[in-house]
Design a protein that fits this description.
five-stranded antiparallel beta sheet; mainly beta; OB fold (Dihydrolipoamide Acetyltransferase, E2P)
């Protein structure tokens, strides 16, 4: 064996997700789902709550409530205890808001390396009017895919005071 390990170990260490048993999933983790086909869109779910459902004569299932980060809708899934899922470790970048491009419907931010990142409107869900140039936000990424956004606490307070839905926030727990 070499110092770097086998090729299989090396490729597993380069992945930003781990395939694990559904029993090991915890609230707050992000799950990655690929459809049946290669062309199917990837979906990301943030786990909100877990509960074991015991059924007589049948194996127990795990009831998972989640926020689909791709569509920003809540959902519920009953999974068999033997199922395996991909748990994603998001790369969170601290970014600074530059401006909101109304024509492209994108929020333009700078990361630490001064690279511009375009954040789709569906991830900020109305908060673009409350964000100002210079505000810091967290951008959770899986490779090149932007998965979730963490808004500043001042913006979250404004959202709550005017009654907007804030399911899209990532780290308000």
């Amino acid at each position: 064996m070499t110092i770097f390990g086998t090729p299989k170990q090396l490729s597993a260490s380069l992945r930003r997700f781990a395939t694990t048993s559904i029993r090991d999933v915890r609230p707050g983790q992000v799950l990655k789902f690929q459809g049946k086909f290669e062309t199917s869109p990837v979906q990301y779910w943030r786990v909100n709550d877990l509960g074991v459902v015991k059924q007589t004569g049948v194996a127990s299932t795990l009831a998972i409530t989640y926020l689909n980060l791709s569509t920003m809708k809540n959902g519920r899934w009953k999974a068999q205890m033997k199922e395996r899922v991909d748990v994603v470790e998001l790369d969170t970048k601290s970014c600074q808001v530059l401006y909101y491009d109304e024509d492209a419907r994108m929020l333009i931010v700078n990361d630490e390396d001064f690279s511009q990142i375009e954040v789709p409107l569906r991830l900020i869900k109305g908060a673009e009017k409350l964000l100002q140039a210079g505000d810091s936000i967290g951008v959770g990424m899986d490779g090149d895919n932007i998965v979730q956004i963490s808004l500043p606490s001042s913006v979250l307070q404004k959202i709550r005071s005017i009654g907007m839905d804030d399911d899209h926030t990532a780290d308000d727990r």
